[in-house]
Write a structure and sequence with these properties.
five-stranded parallel beta sheet; alpha/beta; about 15% strand; 18 strands; Aconitase, domain 3
Length: about 450
């Protein structure tokens, strides 16, 4: 019987099936951070249960950490407590921790792939919704709640109902100035913020095959923003070469054997999906959002639509139906997050801003996703290019993606952001977020107003 890629991975990891209930799913990799793990560790303590397989758990503090002066004691009491507790719990349970001073510290969904922890065919979970990022490698990866974090600690398994299957195919070559972030914002705008609810999505077609691994990670990262459980892309030679040589990847004969196995991870030709969508890459323009969920997106040169039921959202954003956002002044730009803080993103930004100057009204948060990305920024001369244009590179962390650390957008201010969510107050109390690609964000930083990057490239 023909099977989808998702079916193949899921079925291989089913330990048991509960009649008329969920599957017991084995978990290969468990990522944790400082925000959703403390209560799970406390639950283990109360029940006197150890972490069953600590060698399959990997930890890093990222959500609540400062992105300046990380060598100093964390000033915020709650943030400091969470980070200290993570360190204490990891030491107690012998879990690998990439702490703030570790050479491999970074955002959880960035360090997993760049260290080779993430590999095709795995099941991966984390107490964070954007665990879907790892699906770019052909994995079944999804976010879980704190009680489920405790369940995986204790058993290395998880009770899960199997989602339905969706395939989204995009074929063709992207236009200049259009990148993977625009592709996923376009798809979410077409399907809506709840269009993927109940499904696991496979992305297929020449457009995704032509993307780099970093671009694929951006796409899978935001699958959750259309309500889906997760998203994945079949591994190929790009995937195998990306994994090769990573710090924690297999090596030698073991790697070659793994690649043989990974080469079988694809959807069979006659496999059936519960629902399918097809889009054309040339139809996609640079995208921005205008509302308070990622499904409220438009091509950057089109007006705010006249959709019923969006009045409250538009009132919060200060926009009106029919209004053009192109050319609107903004004072904040954020380039970072687990969606767009990889070296490829900073290379693209540096190429665009080289020889130009940041607008004087712009406050810019440029935050690499890991110490490795930060090192590449230095080694490739990107920091110097950005500094000459008036930008400062901060230290790794989730930063202004969410209003949980020091990097907040002030009340009432607009921020053109490369992050994944534009909910009310997401980047700080009463802040207003406009999601965009790194190119659109960089173009906006140069001009001080929402700018179509196609006018600068």
């Amino acid at each position: 019987m023909a099977k989808t890629l998702f079916d193949k991975i899921w079925e291989k990891h089913v330990v048991d099936r509960i009649p008329d209930g969920p599957d017991v799913l084995y978990i290969d990799r468990h990522f944790i951070h400082e925000v959703t793990s403390p209560q799970a560790f406390s639950g283990l303590e109360q029940r006197k249960i150890p972490v069953l397989r600590p060698e399959q758990v990997f930890a890093t503090p990222d959500h609540n950490v400062p992105t300046m002066d990380q060598h100093l004691t964390i000033g915020d009491r709650l943030s400091r407590l969470q980070v200290d507790k993570l360190t204490e719990n990891c030491n107690k349970h012998n879990i690998q921790l990439f702490h703030l001073q570790h050479e491999n510290h970074g955002i959880v969904h960035i360090i997993g792939p760049e260290l080779g922890i993430t590999q095709p065919g795995q099941t991966i979970v984390c107490g964070d919704s954007h665990t879907a990022t790892h699906g770019a490698f052909g994995t079944v990866a999804f976010g879980i709640g704190t009680s489920e974090v405790e369940m995986v600690f204790a058993s290395q398994c998880l009770l899960q109902y199997k989602p339905k299957r969706m395939r989204i195919t995009v074929d063709g070559e992207l236009n200049p100035g259009v990148v993977s972030k625009d592709v996923i914002l376009y798809i979410i705008a077409k399907l809506g913020a709840g269009g993927g609810t109940g499904y696991f999505v496979e992305f297929a077609g020449s457009t995704f095959r032509n993307m780099s691994m970093e671009a694929r990670m951006t796409v899978c990262n935001m699958t959750i923003e259309m309500g889906a459980r997760g998203g994945l892309i079949a591994p190929d030679d790009k995937t195998f070469e990306y994994v090769r040589g990573k710090k924690l990847s297999p090596v030698g004969a073991e790697l070659e054997k793994k690649i043989e196995e990974w080469s079988q991870l694809y959807t069979d030709e006659d496999a059936l999906f519960d629902i399918e969508y097809v889009f054309n890459a040339p139809d996609i323009a640079p995208m921005i959002t205008y509302g308070t969920n990622p499904g409220m997106g438009i091509p950057i040169d089109e007006p705010v639509p006249t959709n019923k039921g969006e009045e409250k959202s538009l009132d919060y954003m200060g926009f009106k139906q029919g209004q053009h956002l192109l050319g609107m002044p903004v004072n904040y730009v954020f380039i970072g997050s687990c969606t767009n803080a990889r070296i490829e993103d900073f290379r693209a930004v540096a190429e665009l801003v080289k020889g130009r100057q940041k607008a004087p009204n712009i406050n810019a948060y440029l935050v690499p996703g890991s110490k490795l990305v930060e090192k590449q920024i230095d080694d490739e001369g990107i920091r110097e290019v950005l500094a000459e244009a008036g930008f400062t590179i901060r230290q790794p962390g989730c930063s202004a993606c969410l209003g949980m650390n020091d990097d907040k957008v002030p009340k009432g201010e607009y921020c053109v952001s490369t992050s994944n969510r534009n909910f009310e107050g997401r980047q700080g109390p009463e802040s207003r977020t406009i999601l965009a690609s790194p190119l659109t964000a960089a173009a906006t930083a140069l001009t001080g107003k929402i700018t179509d990057v196609r006018t600068l490239v």
